[in-house]
Design a protein that fits this description.
Layout: E1 3-12, E2 16-19, H1 20-23, H2 31-38, E3 42-45, H3 50-65, E4 74-78, H4 89-97, E5 103-107, H5 113-126, E6 132-139, H6 150-153, E7 159-168, E8 173-181, E9 189-192, E10 209-212, H7 214-235, E11 245-246, H8 253-263, H9 274-277, H10 283-294, E12 303-310, E13 314-321, H11 343-360
Parallel strand pairs: 4-5, 4-6, 11-12
Antiparallel strand pairs: 1-7, 2-3, 6-7, 8-13, 9-10, 12-13
The structure holds acetyl coenzyme *A (ACO).
């Protein structure tokens, strides 16, 4: 039977670091509040567009796998913060890595997009439609963030990562997954201003209103991720002790701890990097997986659990059998263009745009009646 091994991985973090202390200069917040409620200490703010972040991550993943872009026959790009809706993001990566005429599709299930993308690529490889796929999780939240709203501005960051999947006869890659959605609760996690509903209603693109019911999201995230983990373990007839490492979505350290408790996995076997990056939505698990490998937490034959949760409210859990490769075959010399500006300067642009819109009256009560 054909399986889909993960043979390459690469991440791209923009260099500008925005600390909690930085945020406290523009918002009524402080490091103690953010760290104690979320575990987040800093996050990255990008000076380039989403495609650039994803391209660098993709080139690093291809190099790690030791393959050329021209050998890829499927690209799945998970994101909810597209540079453009049309043409899609995946086709831009296809053109830049030289993967013509690979199939190229975007997928948006918010924070779980990379994980849903993993399922799609896994299924298409296992059914023989394609043999080698690139799955990307990338997010450029900063231009869409409402930097005047402390409830959400402290939670997110920018980043990208990608993995290469290849057909194999060995029992590697995704062994089982659970995908689901609490659609009836979708309104508790909502970013207004990013869709066609707002076109021609005086809402400037990039001016958003984040409608989050944090405590309800918290409960649903714990229920969704821990339920999906239990379901996936049961499908494979595994016990929590069989899992070598959990690499979860990182929205809040307390959510991660609650999921670990409910799944009966000690925190020593849970990978955490939320303190460095905050929540990077679709990029989160992809980057955490790269760092778990880089830090030697993933061994040959390791059994991994990847729980995810996001807008929708989508949830998921994948059990992945790692192969023999735990070090990159090659490295890529592709880098981001240099950045001259600090993170606060980068987000000042977003604030300025919103202020100008208000002054012109175009963003006055922009969401009234919508
Ligand atoms: N700094 C200081 N105070 C703040 C901040 C801030 N950045 N944000 C909110 N507060 C205040 C609130 O105004 C409130 O004040 P009040 O009591 O005077 O009204 C107080 O802190 C407590 O707010 P709560 O919402 O009760 O805080 P809570 O402990 O629930 O933590 C949080 C909020 C961190 C958002 C939490 O609910 C959470 O993590 N929720 C789920 C994660 C989430 O929503 N992530 C977004 C992405 S979704 C995803 O990826 C799955």
């Amino acid at each position: 039977m054909t399986h889909a091994a993960i043979t390459g991985w690469g991440k791209c973090l923009p260099p500008a670091v925005l600390t909690n202390q930085d945020l406290s200069t523009i918002l009524d917040t402080d490091d103690e509040w953010v760290v104690s409620r979320t575990g987040i200490r800093e996050r990255r703010i990008s000076h380039v567009g989403l495609e650039e972040l994803a391209y660098v991550a993709s080139m690093r993943a291809l190099a790690a796998a030791g393959v050329e872009g021209s050998s890829i026959d499927l690209i799945v790009f998970g994101t909810c913060s597209h540079d453009d809706q049309v043409p899609n993001m995946a086709s831009g990566i296809q053109a830049r890595i030289g993967a013509q005429p690979a199939a190229a599709l975007d997928i948006n299930t918010a924070c779980t997009s990379f994980l849903y993308g993993l399922s799609i690529a896994n299924a298409l490889i296992r059914t023989g439609v394609v043999r080698r796929a690139l799955v990307i999780g990338a997010e450029l939240i900063s231009p869409f963030m409402d930097w005047t709203d402390r409830d959400v501005a402290v939670l997110f960051g920018d980043g990208a990562a990608a993995v290469v999947l290849e057909a194999t006869d060995k029992e590697e890659g995704v062994l089982a997954e659970k995908l689901g959605c609490f659609g009836e609760s979708r309104d508790i996690l909502c970013v207004q201003g990013m869709g066609g509903r707002y076109a021609n209603h005086g809402v400037l693109y990039g001016v958003t209103r984040w409608q989050f019911e944090g405590q309800e999201i918290f409960k649903k995230a714990v229920a969704g991720m821990s339920g999906a983990c239990q379901d996936t373990l049961a499908r494979l007839n595994l016990k929590p002790d069989d899992i070598d490492l959990v690499v979860p979505h990182q929205a809040n350290l307390r959510i991660i701890e609650a999921v670990a408790r409910k799944t009966h996995v000690p925190m020593e076997r849970v990978f955490v990097n939320i303190h460095r990056y905050g929540n990077m939505s679709a990029a989160t698990v992809a980057i955490a997986l790269c760092e778990a490998i880089e830090e030697g937490r993933v061994g040959a034959g390791s059994l991994l659990m990847l729980p995810g949760f996001g807008g929708g409210l989508s949830y998921s859990a994948h059990v992945v059998r790692w192969g023999n490769r735990t070090t990159a075959l090659r490295t890529s010399d592709i880098e981001l263009p240099p950045n001259e500006r600090c993170a606060l300067e980068l987000i000042q642009d977003c604030l300025r745009r919103k202020t100008q819109a208000s002054e012109r009256g175009t963003a006055k009560q922009p969401f009234a009646g919508l």
